[in-house]
């Protein structure tokens, strides 16, 4: 709770919560985000909107890591594609490792940026999304030697990356005060 209280005093506009692995809220919120990560792509595929263009599986890992801490983002980034694959067969087995790698990178990049600068901005979200995609593409290429696979999220999925940035900003802005009342009560 100490990290969260410091963040509250440093950044009154956006409350960045940093849940630890020992807190039950970490797992409850992660489960909700994982469910969203499974339902959102399912809905897109159901209406024949291509998942490889909209990249919906990363969206909730971004929200989880940015609002609730990198550990929530990491859990969401790892387990969303795994559970989705088991339940729906998506993402396809051939790309499952690259999706997990990018989900992990997303959580770590968000953790780095929010620890240094907790303020929410479109520019910061753009840097975060471009960073995890660029590094993720390099890692996927190093592992697979498949250039097409490594840059598919960028080349095909740029509409999803834009949606991730703008939609992420809107949702995070709407969640900006979540947890403030509880923190203020606990700090008294």
Tell me about this structure.
By secondary structure, the chain is mostly helical. The chain has one domain: Arp2/3 complex 21 kDa subunit ARPC3, CATH 1.10.1760. The protein is built from ten helices and no strands. The protein has helices at residues 2-10, 24-46, 51-54, 59-68, 70-88, 96-116, 122-144, 147-155, 158-174, 180-187. Helix 2 packs antiparallel against helix 4. The protein is globular and about 50 Å long.
Layout of strands and helices, then pairs:
Elements: H1 2-10, H2 24-46, H3 51-54, H4 59-68, H5 70-88, H6 96-116, H7 122-144, H8 147-155, H9 158-174, H10 180-187
Helix pairs in contact: 2-4, 2-5, 4-5, 4-6, 4-9, 5-6, 6-7, 7-8, 7-9
Give a brief outline of the structure.
By secondary structure, this protein is an all-alpha fold. The protein has one domain: Arp2/3 complex 21 kDa subunit ARPC3 (Orthogonal Bundle), CATH 1.10.1760. The chain contains ten helices and no strands.
**What's the architecture, going by CATH?**
Orthogonal Bundle
Number of domains: 1
- Overall geometric form: globular
Q: Which consecutive residue ranges, at least 5 long each, have pLDDT under 50? A: 1-12
Report the structural category. Answer: mainly alpha
Can you tell me the CATH topology? Arp2/3 complex 21 kDa subunit ARPC3
| CATH level-1 class | Mainly Alpha
Mean pLDDT: 84
Report the portion of residues in β strands: under 5%
Total number of β-strand segments?
Answer: 0
> Which sequence of SSEs, written as H and E, runs from N to C?
HHHHHHHHHH
Subunit organisation of the chains: single chain
Q: What is the terminal separation in angstroms?
A: 13 Å
